[in-house]
Design brief:
The chain contains four helices and nine strands; from the N terminus they run ββααββββαββαβ. By secondary structure, it is an alpha+beta fold. The radius of gyration is 16 Å and the shape is globular.
């Protein structure tokens, strides 16, 4: 069962998320384009190309944002975090984030069970810490750290880092 194993609030500088994007319809779970996007980005060398650039963190990320209430959809961008002033190769999708405080939850479990609960577990830890989501930011992010996600432990479990922009509690 997936569980939160670490939580903290980090200060992120201004960054870019650079990669390939698709629009995801939330009501259409049978047609989820995200797994195919990841397969394509790993298969066509997109992730390798981006990881070789000037990155803030070379770990692959899944950025979710640009929510559209009319179509009940959002953009999912598979890529990497880069400094705000980094040059972006032609043809890539870009979203800017930060500077901001971000609640970061490390969610551990079987790979297939992490994504559905990572946001909920991180939001609960954020609430328990007296912080609140910064709903004006309009994004959340999965970070697939190589050491924690790509190398399962003895029980086959991995750790997904989940980021949510937040407002820190007063006096923090």
């Amino acid at each position: 069962m997936a569980r939160l194993v670490k939580f903290d609030v980090q200060t992120l500088p201004a960054l870019k998320v650079v990669g390939r994007a698709v629009r995801v319809r939330m009501a259409d779970e049978m047609e989820d384009p995200v797994p195919e996007l990841w397969a394509r980005c790993h298969g066509d060398g997109t992730i390798d190309e981006l990881e070789a650039l000037d990155t803030f963190d070379p770990s692959p990320v899944g950025w979710m944002g640009d929510f559209d209430a009319k179509t009940s959809s959002f953009v999912y961008l598979c890529g990497v975090l880069m400094p705000a002033d980094a040059a972006v190769p032609e043809g890539f999708d870009v979203r800017e984030i930060g500077p901001t405080s971000a609640a970061v939850g490390w969610v551990q479990g079987e790979p297939d069970e992490l994504v559905p609960v990572a946001q909920e577990l991180t939001e609960q830890a954020m609430s328990d810490a007296g912080a609140a989501a910064d709903d004006t930011a309009g994004w959340a992010l999965e970070l697939y750290n190589d050491a924690r996600y790509a190398h399962p432990g003895t029980q086959g479990e991995v750790v997904l880092d989940f980021y949510i922009p937040c407002l820190e509690p007063a006096g923090a």
